[in-house]
User: Which sequence fits this backbone?
């Protein structure tokens, strides 16, 4: 898990490095062991305000795609700088009109040991066509838990930040 101080330093660097006109407010910067995700909020296009639901979705999708294409080269350059400086791969995404779209993300293998009842859950998801493999089924389960326990996970992450600050303030080993 990344330390609170390194995550803050990283957020500060991206806030200072990104062009001011890219996003509304500071970007959301999330750091884990392998990856930094940078997600900025795009202003909703004015054309979306008076549009039908289907047209609004199209306007927002087009707006997001235009941003992605127009900023690609600069995002790649900034990502390379960050990867060199902080040693983590960088993924990008945006939020617009209540929708979140990630442009790039890492898919990292994670090893786990499961007993037969847990393996049967995964196999059932595969047999039912919900997932293509046990790996996909496990990823599906993790997304489902994350979606349904957002408040609890946010509270747990906050508690971990408090623990990290207490460790940093304590005597050095």
Assistant:
């Amino acid at each position: 898990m990344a330390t609170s101080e390194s995550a803050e330093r990283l957020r500060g660097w991206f806030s200072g490095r990104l062009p001011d006109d890219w996003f509304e407010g500071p970007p959301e910067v999330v750091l884990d062991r392998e990856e930094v995700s940078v997600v900025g909020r795009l202003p909703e296009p004015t054309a979306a305000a008076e549009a039908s639901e289907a047209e609004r979705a199209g306007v927002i999708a087009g707006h997001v795609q235009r941003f992605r294409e127009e900023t690609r080269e600069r995002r790649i350059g900034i990502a390379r700088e960050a990867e060199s400086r902080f040693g983590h791969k960088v993924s990008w995404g945006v939020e617009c009109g209540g929708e979140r779209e990630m442009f790039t993300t890492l898919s990292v293998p994670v090893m786990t040991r499961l007993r037969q009842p847990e393996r049967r859950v995964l196999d059932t998801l595969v047999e039912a066509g919900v997932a293509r493999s046990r790996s996909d089924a496990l990823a599906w389960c993790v997304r489902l838990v994350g979606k349904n326990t957002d408040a609890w996970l946010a509270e747990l992450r906050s508690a971990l930040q408090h623990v990290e600050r207490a460790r940093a303030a304590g005597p050095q080993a």
Remarks:
- The mean pLDDT is 88.
